[in-house]
Design goal:
The chain is of the alpha/beta class and 417 residues long. The protein contains twelve helices and 19 strands. The protein binds adenosine-5'-triphosphate (ATP) and magnesium ion.
Length: 417
């Protein structure tokens, strides 16, 4: 578990999706700006609804994506920051209170109270992925964002705990290890995407982030600057393609192409007359279908996804706080007219979120299917910034040895906690 930038000079993001493996390699330019220097984007069919269902084909896709990204970037790739998602993800809330040791809150007090708050009953087959402090309390005063150096006798915290299935994580780890890589962080995919598509203002006003992928639609609700609720809906892009395939009696590939090229939720008055050609799956001739017919098939499934999103928002208990509305991302968000359709259905603002421009190759700007991978890079960059300031001592072999030892020791204790 090494600091990636130490050994290879790069940050590597690996988005293992239901339809693709996306590897991004980034380093810093002379101005200290993050830039993308390697991209590997490979199709993958080893996952079912966001969870590994076949190790071997997933490993082959990972190896191909890594190899492409490595060749372009010429950086060694040893360790990756990877996303995790799927219906096995669960979330819990915890809280704790401790005595403040020396009249004012120290870093140690803060670490201790957050550790104590993790002591909630989670199912045996689940393990903790993220512990996200919501707010602190001092002597009963709530809503404190940063308690360090504040005076008081009792420090409390409320945390949001996100867990994943131990088995699902082990299988993900297995695929990465079989690809001869190490993992520096597992990050919940919508948490990663939030780094690349949400603004600080949206997070603090209250926003619902919806990542429509191939296998799953991930929902994450942010209010007051932090994540409050997460859930996974088992309907996404592949199901829409399947509906088109069944509804128009064509092949999966033709249905996918029709969706991407002609799929829309916008109703134009002349759509009823506009026809598209649907390739036949038998020796019968291809047929013509109206755009209205296609929109209807897509709209039915989107309505079902929207109903489930609405239910999640209501169940989260934060529906009155989602003032910035809904931000859609992921490949499925490229469906034409999705934002306007959502505004009408949810009666709130909606927009399509995609990464802003990042220096380097690939021009990821505006590409919603890159949101998770770019978010993983930004998440990792943020974690590295939290680490102790690096100096020229870092290149000293003795310091490197001590640093390696310390990193391993911290990783050991982190696992044990
Ligand atoms: N223009 C488009 N219109 C509609 N759907 C699209 C368009 N472009 C891509 N998609 C859909 O986006 C989906 C893939 O999105 P994405 O790459 O975000 O998924 P993934 O990360 O592989 O899957 P997951 O996150 O669910 O594991 C596919 O179902 C694809 O059909
Ligand atoms: Mg995805």
């Amino acid at each position: 578990m090494m600091n990636n930038l130490d050994k290879t000079g790069a940050i590597v993001a690996l988005d293992i999706g239901t339809t693709k493996i996306l590897c991004l390699v980034a380093d810093y330019n002379d101005d200290g700006q993050l830039r993308i220097v390697g991209i590997g984007d490979e199709p993958c069919d080893g996952l079912e609804r966001g969870v590994i269902s076949e190790i071997q084909s997933t490993v082959s896709s990972i190896k191909r994506a890594i190899s492409k990204a490595r060749n372009v970037s010429s950086h060694k790739i040893e360790s990756v920051t990877t996303g995790i998602a799927g219906s096995h993800i669960q979330c819990f809330n915890g809280n704790a209170e401790i005595n403040i040791t020396n009249d004012e809150v120290t870093e140690e007090d803060k670490i201790k109270v957050v550790e104590n708050a993790q002591d909630v009953q989670i199912p045996n087959d689940q393990e903790v992925l993220h512990v996200i402090p919501q707010y602190y309390t001092i002597d009963g005063q709530i809503g404190i964002r940063e308690p360090i150096a504040m005076a008081g006798a009792r420090l409390g915290v409320n945390v949001h705990i996100i867990t994943s299935s131990t088995t699902a994580k082990k299988n993900l780890m297995k695929c990465i290890e079989n690809s001869l890589l190490d993992v520096d962080h597992f990050v919940l995919e919508p948490v990663a995407s939030s780094y690349s598509v949400l603004s600080e203002e949206e997070r603090s006003l209250g926003v619902c982030l919806v990542d429509i992928g191939g296998g799953t639609t991930d929902v994450a609700i942010f209010t007051d600057g932090t994540i409050k609720h997460t859930s996974v809906i088992q309907i996404a892009g592949q199901m829409i393609t399947n509906d088109i395939k069944i509804g128009l009696r064509t092949s999966t590939q033709a249905a996918e192409e029709i969706k991407v090229q002609h799929g829309s939720l916008m109703n134009h008055p002349d759509d009823g007359e506009k026809m598209i050609t649907v390739p036949s799956i038998s020796d019968k001739p291809d047929k013509e279908v109206s755009l209205t017919n296609l929109s209807h098939i897509i709209g039915c499934r989107i309505d079902e996804i929207f109903e489930k999103i609405q239910r999640e928002i209501e169940n989260s208990g934060h529906s009155s706080k989602i003032r910035a509305g809904i931000v859609f991302t992921g490949g499925g968000a490229r469906l034409s007219g999705l934002d306007e359709y959502a505004e009408a259905k949810f009666s709130c603002p909606a927009r399509i979120g995609a990464p802003a421009n990042i220096a380097g190759i690939g021009n990821v700007s505006g590409k919603a299917r890159y949101s998770t991978a770019v978010g993983l890079l930004l998440y990792r960059e943020n974690k590295l910034k939290d680490m102790p300031h690096r100096t020229s001592l870092d290149n000293n072999p003795l310091f490197t040895f001590i640093n390696n030892f310390w990193t391993k020791l911290s990783a050991y204790f982190h696992r044990e906690l």
